[in-house]
Amino acid sequence: MPRRPLDLAPFHGLRYAAPDVDRFIDRGFDVARLLAPPYDIPDVAQARELQRSDPHNAARVTLPFELSRQEATDNRYSGAAELLRDWITDGYLALDPEPALYVYEQLTPDGRLQRGLIGALALPEEETGTSAVRPHEDVAEPPVLDRFLLMGAARANLEPIFLVYRGAGGAASEATETAPTQSTPLISARTGDGSEHRLWAITDPTIHREVSADLATRSALIADGHHRYAAYQRLRTQHPDPGWSHGLALLVDSDTHPPRLGAIHRVLPGLDTTEALAAARRVAEVETVPRIDTTALARTNSPALLLASTDGTTHLVHDFDQQALAQAMPDHSPDWRHLATAALHEVLMPLWDYPEEQVRMVHDDPTEAVTAAHAARGTAVIVPPMRVEQVYAIADRGELTPRKSTSFGPKPRTGLVMRVLDRR
Asked: Does any domain span residue 404?
């Protein structure tokens, strides 16, 4: 079957109004305080703190916990949509006059530079065959439904998904690297974590055509945003409006800007570590280690995990029984079976009889995971990060990693540019 080309189209970006708007000048315009992390990063308390930080912070529409004062009702989606329309009507958000591809540059406090193109990603139609956009991770229904309902009510893509592709030397990569040298950024902001964010617009139709021709020969991997991409597909299928044929995306050339892959650790509230280790010894080697040393995970045969208990002890679980891995995951490749998250979710958690829905995720910081496990009287599971080459290899075989196996970064900030279906 034919493959639909990778297509990132220009669009009229919806952005916070320029600083010359009187109402922003009156209260000291600072776009940085209006930006937010992706919707799945803050917990409820952090989301509410973002909402309180400014009445126009993007989290008030992407994480509308307080808009209806009823977290469990659909009213929050219509409330978020109404708030977005109010911001447009009142001039806090405005559409750019020309369709553009946007170059987005991030500089992290540790000096990591990432640039990519933000555009409207063409979504595949079922009858056209396979897609040039490949997932690498499975999804769960609740977050897909949540994003589907929010975007459908708002008639907008509120934050981009994050894609990576192999594109060094191509026109798309060249346009991404050239734009920052030729013009002043539309937005320049330093967020509270010390990261710097800049945005440029490419409005030249000639460059748009060159980028389109280049990308048509390539494929992309979803680095972050699998649930939003699934929601894009559902919106495209269930809504007749042709605007849903595209979804907002950031496309980064991983040859030029290799992404950072962090780990996503697990907190298992209420799980007794001693009992968990006793069960783990039936399928793997277990040894006590002096501290949370993630380098130990790379020195042993994969898969390998660290289990940290509330009493301060840490144990390395490694050298899994190969027959146990094969029996638990008969339909997967050996490489997939040797993922730490696969061993955890397919072998260990069934042994522990621990329900998936109770697992909490902690991005990157093992100390935070251990602290959270202590508070929950449970166990922290520290997993190693995957390598970019591993992710590409698994996706190339058509396999999906277990949910939350990777944490690609740096992730795009929400609020720099949005896409609406209704241009008014």
From this structure: no
The three-state secondary structure class of 410 is coil
Element (H, E) at 106: strand 101-107
Beta pairing class for 14-16 and 260-262: unpaired
Helix/strand/coil for 418: strand
Classify burial at 77, counting beta carbons within 10 Å of its beta carbon; exposed 0-12, middle 13-18, buried 19 or more.
buried
Residue 140 and residue 403 in contact, taking contact as beta carbons nearer than 8 Å = yes
Q: How many CB atoms lie within 10 A of CB 246?
A: 21
pLDDT at 99: 97
> Can you say how many angstroms the Cα of residue 137 is from the centroid of all Cα atoms in its chain?
11
**Over 50: is that where the pLDDT of 325 sits?**
yes
Mean pLDDT for 282-287 is 95
Cα separation of 323 and 228, whole Å?
36
Q: Report the number of distinct structural domains present in the chain.
A: 2
Peptide bond connecting 303 to the previous residue in cis, omega within 30 degrees of 0: yes
DSSP structure class, residue 125: P
pTM: 0.83
Q: What is the mean pLDDT of residues 319-343?
A: 93
Placement of tokens 């809504």 in the chain:
239
| Contact status, residue 251 vs residue 119, Cβ threshold 8 Å | yes
Return the structure tokens found at 67: 């808009």
The least confident of 48-52, 202-206, 250-254, 292-296 is: 292-296
Helices (H) and strands (E) in the chain, counts: 16, 21
Sequence-ordered alpha helix ranges (H) in 219-312: 226-238, 273-280, 295-298
CA-based nearest residue to 380, from 332, 322, 311: 311
Q: Is the pLDDT at 71 greater than 80, yes or no?
A: no
- Report d(CA 329, CA 353) in Å as an integer: 17
β-strand pairing of 220-224 with 133-134 = parallel
Measured at the alpha carbon of residue 177, what is the angle toward residues 216 and 393, in degrees to the nearest 5? 50
Residues 145, 43: one domain? yes
Find the mean pLDDT for residues 175-180.
96
Q: Do 413 and 277 have their domain in common?
A: no
95 three-state secondary structure: strand
- Residue 241's identity, in one-letter code, is D
Query: Domain range spanning residue 342?
Result: 264-384
Q: How far apart are CA 275 and CA 59, in angstroms?
A: 41
Q: Looking at per-residue confidence, does 73 or 395 come out higher? A: 395
Residues with Cβ within 8 Å of 169's Cβ and at least 6 positions away in sequence, in order, are: none
Whether residue 104 lies inside any domain: the answer is: yes
402: in domain: no
